[in-house]
Task: inverse folding
């Protein structure tokens, strides 16, 4: 599905952005999301400046920004959890360096 944006006064022709599935966005690393969002924002701004239709760019950008918001909120909640329970790693047996036992000790409140 290749939607074209045309501007009457310019010899301007661009395809709509690649659309990612929301599940695929969830698996992208933070840097890739940030880079793609920056790219789409630049493309959208250009299209708007020449009178093009930027709807498909705005929609894809909204999905990426939503994923960024979800990750930020999740990170803040995780920080509160760690602050409250202070995850402390048990002593690791030198023979078994793969031990990952964690003891949770309440240290504060989540508010």
Result:
């Amino acid at each position: 599905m290749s939607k074209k944006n045309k501007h009457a006064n310019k010899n301007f022709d661009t395809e709509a952005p690649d659309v990612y599935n929301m599940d695929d966005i969830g698996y992208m690393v933070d840097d890739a999301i940030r880079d793609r969002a920056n790219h789409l924002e630049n493309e959208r701004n250009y299209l708007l400046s020449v009178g093009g239709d930027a709807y498909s760019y705005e929609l894809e950008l909204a999905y990426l920004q939503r994923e960024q918001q979800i990750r930020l909120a999740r990170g803040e909640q995780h920080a509160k959890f760690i602050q409250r329970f202070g995850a402390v790693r048990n002593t690791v047996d030198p023979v078994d360096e793969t031990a990952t036992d964690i003891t949770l000790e309440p240290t504060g409140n989540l508010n």
About this structure: The first strand starts at residue 4 and ends at 7. Residues 55-85 form the longest helix (31 residues). The beta strands are 4-7, 12-15, 88-89, 102-103. Confidence is low (pLDDT under 50) at residues 1-13.
